[in-house]
Write a structure and sequence with these properties.
Beta-lactam-related; eight-stranded antiparallel beta sheet; Beta-lactam/transpept-like; DUF7586; 20 strands; Beta-lactamase; 458 residues; Beta-lactamase family protein
Length: 458
């Protein structure tokens, strides 16, 4: 096994080595490689080979299959941010003649458009793209299986349409848009539609014997936006850090946050995972992990990252079946987050304090529910229940006055500081909910008024 690492404890390094070695051995895969990134850089990578080839490292290319889809989703979100389309637009507005009806761009991104999962036979992953030269060949005579927007149904054909959408709106190929708008700005020099050395060969492993069979490596043609790419664990970790933090050259932090938010309907029995816009969100071991998986004949891939922990992990293998790279990536991430957590930044006092904001802090009451309002380091406000369950949210100041909710129930709602004729703060209005300094105080602006006899015993 070979590895590289920095700034991790020796025990953490060994635990990561062990997990990769176990995955390669128990998964019966010719080779497997993993990497972990945090604080903006890859901090560990390790690989193991059992087929006589050199151990893979963070620079060894593998085919990543459907992890191509988040790249395509980023290209679509860039078009939205530039005002060239809206996610609520029907696809037909920008790409007419597909025959998929009124499905929207957002529904395609989160796999709720109701389209078929695969193209018509023969199996597209092991046959030449010349058999499917046009979108009509990919979609077939019955492209839709379910009512649009009603349920999650994973669709490779949907991302084929999104790739064609990018090409139509940009006036260039999906491949060229990918190269100039994502790969070059983010420095992903080892990610491409075609492999370059060093790269792994795709194998099938016999289910009942330790024997290998070469797998074909087909160009996917018009279906490339659904699964064409080759990449490395190093590049994938860097891509995950971008999806966690944003990059002004590609997408803002606000837009990648939007991509990570659940967007598809959740089916019964699927409460632990849901799709956002090109990304899967799941709960694993108490953590919210975001990422995607991928597979093509001869290759398996997994990418996971945790925004809260600031850790990303990628795992690649060259076998048609066997290891579970997504599970292994989640394990690598968990090892670092639990055994070698980031040292928190030191607490620092604010450089300056606005007296009017400081006046707003402290206890507030919605009816008899007690809340505390705190001033945050970024200049925002945070409202949280002081005891028991309750709705909490952070708020961002707006240039024209007022505050906008950023979390959960109050997302997008307006918090207004209401002052009396004397200029003093009377109450807070949060989407019509009135918060007062005392619970049901006489003379306060309580909707419906307060009983004139006030509080009493029984």
């Amino acid at each position: 096994m070979t590895s590289s690492f920095a700034s991790l404890l020796p025990g953490t390094e060994r635990a990561l080595f062990h997990r990769v070695a176990l995955a390669q051995s128990e998964g019966r895969t010719p080779s497997l490689v993993g990497a972990v990134a945090r604080d903006g850089a890859v901090v560990w990578s390790g690989g193991r080979s059992g087929d006589g080839t050199p151990d893979p490292d963070a620079d060894t290319q593998y085919r990543i299959g459907s992890i191509t889809k988040p790249f395509t989703a980023v290209l679509v979100m860039r078009l939205r941010d530039e005002g060239l389309l809206d996610l609520s637009d029907p696809l037909e507005k920008h790409l007419p003649g597909t025959g998929v009806g009124e499905v929207t761009i957002a529904q395609l991104l989160c796999h709720s458009a109701g389209l078929a999962a695969e193209s018509p036979a023969p199996w597209w992953e092991r046959t030449s793209a010349t058999l499917r030269p046009e979108l009509a060949d990919v979609l077939g005579p019955q492209p839709s299986l379910h009512p649009a927007g009603r349920r999650f149904h994973y669709s490779n054909t949907g991302y084929t349409l999104l790739g064609s959408l990018v090409a139509a709106v940009r006036g260039t190929s999906w491949e060229e848009a990918l190269r100039t708008e994502i790969l070059e700005p983010l420095g992903l020099r080892r990610t491409d539609v075609r492999p370059s050395a060093p790269h792994a060969r795709g194998w099938a492993v016999h289910p009942w014997a330790d024997a290998l069979l070469p797998e074909p490596s087909e160009d996917l043609g018009v279906m490339a936006p659904a699964g064409q790419l080759w990449s490395t664990v190093g590049d994938l970790c860097r891509f995950a850090l971008f999806l966690a933090e944003g990059d002004a050259m590609v997408l803002s932090a606000e837009t990648v946050r939007e991509m990570r938010a659940p967007a598809a309907p959740v089916q019964e029995g699927e409460w632990d995972g849901v799709f956002g816009l090109g990304l899967r969100i799941e709960r694993v071991g108490g953590r919210t992990l975001v990422g995607h998986g991928g597979s093509l004949p001869g290759f398996l891939a997994g990418l996971r990252f945790s925004v809260a922990d600031g850790v990303a992990a990628a795992v690649l293998a060259n076998a048609t079946s066997g290891p579970q790279p997504g599970v292994v990536a989640a394990d690598l991430l968990g090892i670092v987050a639990e055994a070698d957590p980031r040292i928190p930044a030191p607490w620092k006092p604010l450089p300056s304090v606005d007296p009017e904001l400081l006046e707003l802090t402290g206890p507030w009451y919605w009816g008899t529910y007690a809340y505390g309002l705190a001033l945050l380091a970024d200049g925002g406000l945070e409202l949280r229940p002081l005891r028991g369950a309750g709705r909490a949210s952070r708020f961002r100041a707006e240039p024209g006055g007022g505050w906008t909710g950023l979390d959960d129930y109050f997302t997008g709602e307006t918090l207004t500081v209401v002052r009396g004729a004397d200029g003093r703060v009377s109450h807070l209005d949060l989407g019509s909910f009135v918060f007062t300094r005392e619970p049901y105080e006489q003379g306060d602006a309580v909707p419906g008024g307060v009983d004139q006899d006030g509080w009493r015993g029984r």
